[in-house]
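Side project, low priority. Logging it here so it doesn't get lost.
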Amino acid sequence: MAGVSAVRVLVVDDDPLVRAGLTLMLKGADELVVVGGVADGAEVGAAVDAYAPEVVLMDIRMPGLNGIDATRLLRRRPDPPHVIMLTTFDADEHVFGALRAGASGFLLKDTPPEGIVDAVLRVAAGEPILSPGVTRRLIAHLAPEAEDRRRDDGRRLLSRLSDREREVAAAVGRGASNADIAAELHMSVGTVKSYISRILAKTNLDNRVQLALIAHDNPL
């Protein structure tokens, strides 16, 4: 049974089998509690009002209001929940739209249960996720003609960073957690969080996921 401090999760997917599967899987983790599930992005606002989830697992493609637009609406709220996008990568052109909308990370729908649980817990703790595997697949599916421009933009942003900030950014690009970065660079987790906040401010990026993509694309 979930404890009193369990992370509250809302599942959003138009496929009832996917919704049921995710709900059943998440209910097996003591650290999580599934507070509800809805089939369309248009239902998310009311569900958030009703259930106050801390994390929303959101499908990107839905027949009504899609996950990107639903995420954008959520992120305009005061104290919004974190959003993890669910994707099968059959619509890669939407991924960066989701990043711009404020998504905290991405999960493939075939991610093992323990990976989904870990991602939800990390995002709830304020640590957006983008695994190295997902990063590689994102980069591989981007339009080749945009690659040079993307790298130039990334190099320009990263040139604003100090040497230590670049070390932190490189670790983020490898998909390292805050705890991993702290151990690698011999600093506290709080210091890592401060560095990441400073890096995001210097580069005008919205979140850690965008930083991970730029750092991955421009090895430091």
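Brief comment: The chain has two domains: 7-129, 146-217.
Revisit when time allows.
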